[in-house]
Amino acid sequence: MKAIIQGQETVLQQIDGVWTPEKNPEATVSVLPDGRLLLHVSNKVFTARLMDINRVEKTLILSLNGKSVSVTLKEPLDDLLHSMGLDKMAVAKVSHVKAPMPGLVLNVLVQPGDEVKKGDKLLVLEAMKMENIIKAAGDGKVARIAVDKGQAVDKNQILIEFE
């Protein structure tokens, strides 16, 4: 398995249930019973806390010494899919975003021409006295905003169209 930590790729190997970097087998990562990670690197011990996990993207956000650290995990299958060009097929091509429920558009966070990535915030929709942030399901370029701030919308009404 590979880990991409802050942009640097490291090959990991698992020995007796503990993950270690292939180039530095003295470094280890263990999971504590409370879910924190214990990192031993060059005779130093660090404790990290998992802040966020995205199982689809295989990414982790760790808090390490008060700093946010991004880790992406890549398995051999991921490399094979990439070499065959099949990883690009998994990226959703978005043509529009529809209202998931009836509500009121509180704020539109993008404009026509904006490039958005999967997970970017697009607009805020109030429904049943709760604010719902509508996010992009995939990468794309905003072609048209089909609603205005303050407008009431119905379920499945198109909110934003993409090129």
Could you give a quick summary of the protein structure above?
With 163 residues, the chain is mainly β.
What is the N-to-C order of secondary-structure elements (H for helix, E for strand)? Answer: EEEEEEEEHEEEEEEEE
- The percent of residues in helical segments reads under 10%
The total count of helices amounts to 1
pLDDT < 50 runs, ≥5 residues: none
Query: β content, as a range?
Result: over 45%
The end-to-end distance, rounded to whole angstroms, is 36 Å
Overall pLDDT, averaged?
Answer: 80
Total discrete domains: 2
Task: Give an account of the 3D structure.
- It is built from 1 helix and 16 strands.
- The longest helix is centred in the middle third of the chain and has 8 residues, at 76-83.
- The radius of gyration is 21 Å and the shape is elongated.
- It has 163 residues and is mostly beta strands.
- Helices cover 5% and strands 53% of the residues.
- It starts with a strand and ends with a strand.
- The mean pLDDT is 80.
- The protein has 2 domains: 2-88, no CATH class; 96-162, OB fold (Dihydrolipoamide Acetyltransferase, E2P) (Beta Barrel), CATH 2.40.50.
